[in-house]
Model the fold of this input.
Amino acid sequence: MTITTYSPEETIAFAQKVGGLLRGGDVIAFRGGLGAGKTTFTRGLSLGLGLGDDVTSPTFALVNEYRGENISLIHFDMYRINGGADLETTGFYDYMDEDTVIAVEWSENIAGELPENCIFIDIKRVDDNTRAITLQGDERFAVLGN
Done:
């Protein structure tokens, strides 16, 4: 499914709907260049999971954690990670459990390490405000196309 959003607020609103459909164990693999809106989308995911909107880019920290009572969102930036050996140092595998959603920016850098059932979100910057967002996931996301 591909949708177009015309403002950061629309991107967040769509991502919030996606977040409402997520469950523990899900891994979101973002693909998109600098400034595409991956962190903005993650802000919406966090809202949809009931975790609030205080989401920042994990560029320098590599990982940001947003904890809730029943579910947590772990937000990774893999820009500087090059494969499995580097990935081990981030603690990526330690976060995979049934009460955690993982969102991975620059997932292309760890493509061979991603689980089979990843949810892929491609974000293309059309102009300053417009984004073309393609979501590839399982059947639960079909409702978003209505």
User: Anything to note?
Assistant: The first helix runs from residue 8 to 21. The domain at 2-145 is CATH 3.40.50.300 (Rossmann fold). The chain has one domain: 2-145. The chain has a mean pLDDT of 89.
